[in-house]
Specification:
19% strand; 8-stranded mixed sheet; 973 residues; alpha+beta; Cytochrome Bc1 Complex, Chain A, domain 1; 6-stranded mixed sheet; globular; 27 strands
């Protein structure tokens, strides 16, 4: 990059590990900060961020983030974000509020589309419609909702309801309280997302002031990444936006917290659902501030310590706490993306009365590690795991450039001259290996975790009925305000409620919609991506080679058929995946085995996979999978470790089994609650599908109940469980049940084959006859139409059914229908008007279809909205532009850029489901040719889904009970 008019290049840095060149620039007129990374990646990324430290917990930063994307000067549509989601080829499109910053990133592989996305986002942040239309604030933030002068008066708003969902999670609560406990005198002491109690205190005027103060180029951080003409983009930004502003001194400094004279202690409470036991349901945390985010070595070193102390199998601090019975699950995290990072150790499912013992054990173990020295193998394992991840740079479906850009904020936000220090870390890993020999990690423990007084102990205890108490307090607050109003003021509120509804229902004028730039159908690739499945026979074992360049990494998948075992043993199989590699073997104890794995592999895990035959709802395959990612030279060693794990694992270690069962039950419960939409959908799909029932038994509510029953009655069931686990090890891991998948380049394949053949030759050919062992725990607990009561304040409302089984064949246009509903009718009804944070639907080739809401204040109303979908589709009208938009948005989801690993997984998935590239091409052709008539015909498909009448809801206990008529049974989750 040469000198660009309007900017000064401050730094140029070769980022060798990224195969890129980084530039740091400053905009001459406004002092806007710009970082540009030139590289050959065609998945281009743009983001603009602002320092936005909150001064209270009204959520103003979060509400501004939502609302600037609700129309702007050049794009005066009510929801340009949704218009882009519906009609662009974006590979990422979102906005995020953090404790000290707000970031607006977009990504696309299409040059024209990328420019369009940049344009809409720049206009949104600098010239939003929020100054012209207060209803945007009311809809996305909060408003008084009053249907009648007789009441009741309530609060509503998208952010208000989103944060009710966030505040329903005990883990979110304790993480929030930890941050507040460590930084009480700074902006980190407030909730940037907004506390539902405080959100209604935010005035329209204060909200506008926040935007005008912080959303200025002088307070901005602009980021460009990828294969593009950087000079052209920078010139466009200058001429179109930046040069129209003058320099403004913005007081957005992130002030550090002064260190404490003595550690802080904070006690908090969270809500339990009716009928839940409060025994062993508390959380205790030990938290310490660890320097500042500009220390390159510290930044990675504490991620290593996170593994060494807690995360690793058999990690000493975690093991000491578990052995003392402090909690069923010990977790930790290092929060590195704020000005002063902190490290936390948390005991879950414990009692507050154990607080002193908890602290004593942690400090005792830390002192012992400092005195005796940390296990060098553990340090090497932690460093290797981080370095493997760093070099692989595989972020799944997220663009690589996006993740680099977000990580850059960890330093750039606090020192405008240091954007690249954490994404260019080769030297850091080298330095840390040298420092490891000098007692560096032990000194960090002494300095930051033992001697440091800038720390805290935070507890969170359960309180029965707290949600109901909070709901009452909210209703009483509304009622008190309502009682102060005159009749005229009440009539005004009724009118404002009606006006907001009219505003939400009123379509954006066609001429305004056409201002949003749109690609044409000619901009979309017509050809489906092929698969790579080269079938080989290695001495009787089938191997599928997925030929993709992987930069010297083997992605190895071994598949073992488990379908005949599911009916009796599904949850036991799932439990087995958590044990292999995490227990002692004849050769290594669990800590040494874990260290061996991470010193040789980037991944070494077991999981289950259910794969349905394409367009055949009742035919499926089932596997236990072993997954490894490994550099070529370590492959033989990894297979040796796998052989050890499969043949020498101590499955009869009762103490270790109890630890894993208890830990898994705790972690799964939190996952079911936090991803309530997925939980509800998967449960609803299981009502009529055998495969769905097995999936529930291995991953869902059924599996959680199995784990809980085993954990609560361990002495009664342990012998039976151990016998089954041992039998399954012998039944599953045989040569005749195994096939392999390998993703690597053709030129690298021979090294895999040599190591694999050596491993396979040692596998038992077939199972010896095993006596059938009857499980003592039943797992088929699914009833129809369930309402699950939680202690949360919001709902997840799911409906499901199968249209293929009712005679409606699958068609590619259903993918367009999905996108159109998710960002159109359902979005408007459930999110915009209903106040839910999100709503989704899906229609699979198997015929399985669903609708589900996310963090939804409603229940029955959302169910009624689902019933109106078919009617909406039957009367659907759209011009060519609208159809093109929906098709482009659909293809955007289909054409998500794939990493070598995900290309291999996609190819293997096609092989198992018997899907050919011709099937993919046919579906793509049907998407590209979707017409208004196709959309209308989809009404029959939706009718078929809803005809089953299957509903599953996770939600607030009072809401669920109020709608009892919808459910066949109501239970506490």
């Amino acid at each position: 990059m040469k000198q660009v008019k309007g900017y000064t290049i401050l730094q140029k840095q070769e980022l060798k590990e990224l195969n890129a060149t980084g530039y740091l620039l400053e905009h001459d007129k406004t002092k806007a900060k710009v970082a540009a990374i030139e590289t050959a990646d065609d998945n281009k990324v743009f983001s603009i961020g602002f320092r936005t430290p909150p001064k209270d917990s009204t959520g103003v930063a979060h509400i501004v983030e939502h609302t600037v994307l609700c129309g702007s000067k050049e794009f005066p549509v009510k929801d340009p974000f949704i218009e882009l989601a519906k009609g662009s080829l974006n590979t990422f499109l979102n906005a995020m509020t953090y404790p000290d910053k707000t970031v607006y990133p977009v990504a696309s592989c299409n040059d024209k589309d990328f420019q369009n996305l940049m344009h809409v986002y720049m206009d949104a942040v600098f010239y939003p419609n929020i100054y012209n239309e207060e209803k945007i604030f009311k809809q996305e933030g909060w408003h008084y909702h009053l249907d009648s002068v007789d009441g009741p008066l309530t609060y509503n708003g998208v952010v208000f309801n989103e944060m009710k969902g966030v505040f329903s999670s005990p883990e979110q609560l304790i993480e929030r309280k930890i941050q507040q406990s460590l930084y009480p005198d700074t902006s980190y002491g407030f909730e940037s997302g907004g506390d539902p109690v405080d959100i209604p205190d935010l005035t329209y005027e204060d909200y506008l002031d926040f935007h005008s103060k912080y959303y200025h180029p002088s307070n901005s951080y602009i980021y460009l990444y990828g294969d593009m003409d950087m000079e052209e983009k920078l010139t466009w930004m200058d001429e179109k936006y930046l040069s129209h502003f003058d320099y403004l001194k913005v007081d957005s400094e992130i002030k550090p917290q002064k260190a404490f004279d003595k550690p802080a202690e904070v006690d908090a409470f969270y809500s339990l659902a009716e009928g839940e036991s409060d025994k062993d349901k508390s959380y205790i945390s030990y938290n310490a501030v660890t320097g500042n985010s500009l220390d390159r070595d510290l930044y990675i070193a504490f991620q290593v310590l996170n593994y060494v102390l807690i995360q690793g199998v058999g990690a000493p601090v975690k093991q000491a706490l578990v052995d003392a019975g402090i909690g069923s699950e010990i977790i930790s995290f290092f929060e590195e993306s704020i000005c002063q990072p902190f490290f936390s150790i948390i005991a879950k499912n414990t009692e507050v009365s154990k607080k002193e013992e908890f602290v004593k054990i942690i400090r005792g173990e830390l002192e012992k590690l400092v005195k005796e020295g940390i296990n060098k193998d553990s340090l090497n394992a932690g460093l290797n795991a981080l370095e493997f991840r760093y070099r692989e740079a595989d972020f799944g479906s997220y663009p690589k450039g996006l993740m680099y850009g977000l990580q850059m904020f960890d330093s750039w936000l606090y020192d405008s001259e240091k954007p690249f220090i954490h994404i260019s870390a080769n030297d850091t890993f080298k330095r840390l290996r040298e420092k490891m020999e000098e007692g560096y990690f032990e000194s960090l423990i002494q300095t930051y975790l033992l001697d440091n007084t800038h720390r805290s102990v935070v507890t969170a205890a359960p309180k029965m009925g707290l949600t109901a108490e909070q709901d009452r307090a909210e209703a009483e607050k509304c009622q008190r305000y309502f009682d102060t109003l005159s009749r005229e003021e009440k009539e005004n509120l009724v009118r404002e409620t009606e006006e907001l509804t009219r505003y939400q229902e009123e379509p954006t004028p066609k001429e305004d919609l056409e201002k949003i730039p749109l690609l044409s159908r000619e901009d979309i690739g017509k050809k489906a991506l092929p698969f790579s499945n080269i079938e080989k026979d290695l001495k009787g074992t089938k191997v599928l080679h997925h030929d993709y360049f992987t930069n010297g990494i083997y992605y190895i998948d071994l598949y073992f058929d488990i379908k005949p075992l599911l009916a009796e043993y599904a949850p036991y199989i799932s439990l087995l995946t958590s044990l292999i590699g995490c227990v002692d073997t004849d050769v290594h104890d669990k800590l040494a085995f874990s260290n061996e794995i991470l010193q040789n592999a980037g991944d070494f895990t077991f999981d289950t996979l259910l794969s349905r035959k394409y367009k055949q709802p009742k035919e499926y395959k089932a596997f236990m999978i072993f997954r490894a990612k490994v550099f070529e030279e370590k492959t033989e060693k990894v297979f040796e470790l796998l052989d050890e794990a499969l043949k020498m694992s101590h499955l009869d270690d009762e103490k270790r089994l109890k630890e894993i069962v208890s830990e898994n039950a705790s972690a799964l419960y939190m996952r079911l609650i936090s991803a309530g939409h997925s939980t509800a959908v998967n449960r609803a799909l299981a009502y009529r599908s055998q495969m769905g029932r097995y999936d529930e038994a291995m991953n869902g509510i059924s599996y959680y109940r199995f784990l809980k029953q085993l954990n609560d009655n361990f002495d009664e069931y342990k012998d039976n469980t151990i016998a089954i686990l041992k039998m399954l090890m012998q039944e599953i891991f045989t040569k005749d049940k195994m096939m392999a998948g390998i993703t690597c380049a053709e030129s690298s394949y021979d090294g895999f084959e040599k190591a694999f053949v050596k491993f396979a030759e040692k596998m038992p050919e077939k199972t010896e006859e095993n006596a059938n062992i009857q499980p003592q725990i039943s797992f088929d607990d699914i009833q129809q139409n369930e309402g699950f009561k939680t202690a949360g304040q919001v709902q997840y409302v799911a409906r499901s059914g199968n249209f293929v089984e009712r005679g409606i064949p699958y068609h590619g246009s259903y993918r367009v229908v999905r996108a159109m509903l998710s960002y159109g009718f359902l979005w408007n009804e459930v999110r915009v008007k209903g106040g839910a944070y999100g709503v989704m639907c899906g229609f699979a080739s198997s015929g399985e279809g669903y609708f589900v809401s996310y963090r939804d204040p409603k229940l029955a109303e959302t169910n009624e909205t689902y019933k109106k979908v078919a009617e909406y589709l039957r009367s659907y009208e759209a011009e060519e532009r609208e159809m093109t938009k929906s098709i482009i948005g659909t293809i955007s989801a289909v054409d998500t850029p794939l990493t070598p690993k995900t290309k291999g997984s996609r190819s293997m998935g096609a092989y198992f489901s018997k899907m050919k590239v011709e099937d993919v091409q046919k579906e793509r052709d049907e998407i590209l040719s979707t017409s208004v008539e196709d959309i209308r015909r989809a009404a029959d498909m939706v009718d078929a889904i809803l005809a089953d009448g299957k509903i599953c809801v996770l939600g607030n206990e009072e809401k669920v009970k109020e709608n009892a008529e919808l459910f066949g049974c109501i239970e506490t989750l």
